[in-house]
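Technical note accompanying the year-one report. For the benefit of new consortium partners, we illustrate the data format agreed upon in the data management plan: each record pairs a sequence with a structure-token string. No post-processing was applied to the example shown here.
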Amino acid sequence: MKSKIMVFAILGLAGVSLVEAKPKMEEKKINKENEIMILGSYFDFNNSFSKMYTLKLNPIPIPDPIPDGPIPDPDPIPNPNPIPDPGPVIVNWFPVVKEAGVIVREKNIVGDMLRYDVSGDIMSTGQAALWMTDKNTNVYNYNTLDTTGYDYTVEVEGQAHFENNGIILGNNGGVEVLGGASILNNGDIKNIGNYGILVYETGSEAINSQTGIIENTGAAGIYVANGAKGSNDGIIKNKSDYGFYVSGSDAVGINNVTGVIENIGHRGMYSEYGGKTVNYGLIENTSCWGMLTVGLGSEAVNEVGGIVRNGTYQGYTYDISGMQASSGAKATNKGSVENIGMYGMAGSGAGSEVINESTGVVANTAISGMYVENGAKATNYGLIKNGIVGKTNSGQSGMEISGTGSVGINEATGVIQNIGYYGMYASNGSGAINKGRIENNFSYGMYGSGTGTALTNENTGIIANDGSYGMTLYSGATGINNGTISNTGDYGMYLSSGSTGVNNGTIHITGDNKTGVNVSNSTFTNNGTILMEGKNTTAIRATSNSTVKIASGSEIILKNGSTEDTVTQGTTDFTGKGTGNISTNGKFYDLDSTSTLINAGTVSTNNVLSIQGGGKFVLDSETGSLNAEILNLEDNLYVNASVALNSSDDVYTNNGLDVNEITGDGKVVSDSKLFSASINDKNVVTLTRNNFENVFVGDLGTVLENNYTGSESNEEQNKIYNSLKSITKDDKIKDANTELMGQASVENQMYQQFTLNKIIDRGIEKILNKRDENNNGFYVNFLGSKSEVDSKDDSIGFKGDFGGVIIGGMKNLDETTSIGGFLTYLDSHYDYKDTAKSVQDTETWSLTGVVEKELSNNFKWTTKVGYNKNTNDVNRKITYDNSNRDVNGEFDSWSLSGSTVIEYTKKINDRISLKPSAGVILDYISQDSYNESGADGLNLNVDSSNGLSSRIGVGLEAEISAYKNLNHEVKIIPRIDYLYELGDPYGDKTVSMEAFSDNMDVWSRNAGRNDLNLGIDLQYEYRDNLMLFTGYSAGVLEDNKTQSVNAGFKFTF
């Protein structure tokens, strides 16, 4: 009987290859640096330096020998009559100096003074050229020492001292120093390998003097570990990474004033595991990281007078840092960082910190003077002036901060004057604080981008960049100015795309046709001074659904020469100056028809106060008031719900309309969607709460209504009600309804898992349909699918992408019966169509058993039983309150599936065959409960759920031979499948918010009872040995728009 291999590959797969089974190859030793070999499940990541570090860089200290006699008491009682020191310890003669393994000096008194000059040039094989031990053993070398086939040319241990005035060679390590020993190198160490000097253990010390040169060909000119100390007064120029390597708590490496580190490679000085490096001299290694420190407790310091000037290799600048701290380490600059590279100082990882002290200068040539990410902190007390004079934007950011938890601070003494677009740049949830002076020469003084990103210009802070924007907030960022913004460009502050800004300080803009603050689709509060000097200026411009709030400290001054016009919150004049408060010098406010102006104080006039179109005017219900003889409402007057915050009353009043008469066609309207506004004959405005059940759909309204009374005493509940009271738009009410119940993900989860089961089942069907029942076979099917599900009936739609693989085989038991098994992995990603753009990722593992039975020449019966295990990761956001908080949830699920199908084959003629089929499919799904995190009281607790699907189906497939000769045949295979759901597997799911104990039922998406799929395959056959095929199928009913494409081949041998 023939054997068969079949491989299916989904369209978009770069390529599919058939791998035949081969005899096991002879094992070979892999000995390549930085090699990655993938052969089955074998992965080899081998780096010679890392390997040597593992084996040798942290040697296990050899304990001192235990003296003869009883073990001393670890905590002896003091003797009132101590025995005098017996003096020198006399023992049997023992060796203290060896040359090429030959003993040349011995002692019989431990610690006896001994001086020995090396006898001459030494060439050793398989052992150290020179070895020494014991306190007060002093060995001097004026010759050439060389070793092959051994770890180190010279070994110094047991408190001995070695002074090298000659040359040390060797094909591995140069000098090893341990056990409290020491070395003074006045000569030249140039071994071919790692470690010019390796010194470790407490009390051990290595000194490279002013005449000393270390130029080994491998990594680590000097390596210091485990409490040892190393210092360089000469030159380290090894030809690889790590000029100076320091590892372990209390280990210290110092490059002194005359010291030069110029290794060819990364990391001039490197510290880890609590080690410390200090530079007083010059570091100019050729590539990344002049000084790099890694790990909690590790530290790097560039002292006053110290220069870090790495990065000279062939003009390469990418990813080169002068000083960097990672994984909780600390790097401090008191001298000068002037590397040729991307970052002057960089920090990465929570707890990492980089500091430029008041004496420090960061003057690297490229992108960021100081850069931190992933929770690190950067602080500048000195001068940042990265970039190249005359080269535009060569120093793009003075300080760049990225990632949640990361923060950058320019202290009061700090000055940022980089040659580039951004003085301080913050993104992805980070924070930037300026207390000093920013005077970069291009576009943005401070720039913040992304939800959670926060900029603060403190009261001592001055932003005086030569560019268009003093402070820019983009895409949900927040910014506060408590200091001074006096840039020379067009905008003092610029807000866009859902950002929030506050001015408590001074914005001073000079020049004609300029704008103090531009607000686009954002929110701005002015509680400080905006001074505009020039012609035709605008203090605040708002467009695209923006909100501008005029707070109690607001003062806006339009000045042109000697002409000055001022408005404060209490002197806003809508009668003389119009809705925009237009002055002869320009405009105080310029709002388009979609934007809102909120008055939180008093607006007064002695005559008529007109509320006109061209923007929404909102009166703050808690602090706002209007004083006029006549209030002319040419447009509606909106009253917000600020008076209702932190309270659970149903009715609130506002006595802020101090007017004798109200005229016009406009009305007094609630700005909050949770309240209705009315006004009586005494001009008292009343806000009445709407029933939550009339505002929100489903159980959410009931839960909110039942828990409202007394909610101000519950912190989490009070936050939720305050956020809902602040909603002013219908679409935000809809978003709140969706997000508070988690509808996007929760209502689709059962539907999605049934779809995954369907994809796996049809993937196995593809294999079974193409196999020859007469053959055994091994099969691989690469899966790929896309799904488009519409939003309807208050449910949220989504797009799904699926990819995976099915591996399995079939075995013939006899001429009519075959059995087999299939293992499936499927990776699924869902993008929901809600405002928050929620997502879900699901990993599925499946095991399926198959039995095929030929009932007659034309009838075939197939039965499948499968078990699926899923892990699901849900990520959504809370957007209705503009907080954009991430909410995360994880849960497991599993399912059992079974199907039985009978297929009949009818040959119509030599070119056409029909295959009708009928069957039953059962699926049982169980989903675990889960609790969300990330949004406090809005986190959902989702109950477990299960569903049983029972479907019956029929199908019809036709095989049409479109072309056929002796060796070749082309077939077209159209098909249609129809399934009908007998059960009701899509029951509601139960959820509750963490702030409330009440449950809410969330409707589950129903796939409908009818599932109709159409498909077509194109198949090519060469004799009986090779088959190539491709196909497409799609659901055509409204509830099922899943599309799939497949391509593959079958080889029979």
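Partners are asked to follow this layout when depositing records. The longest strand covers residues 859-878.
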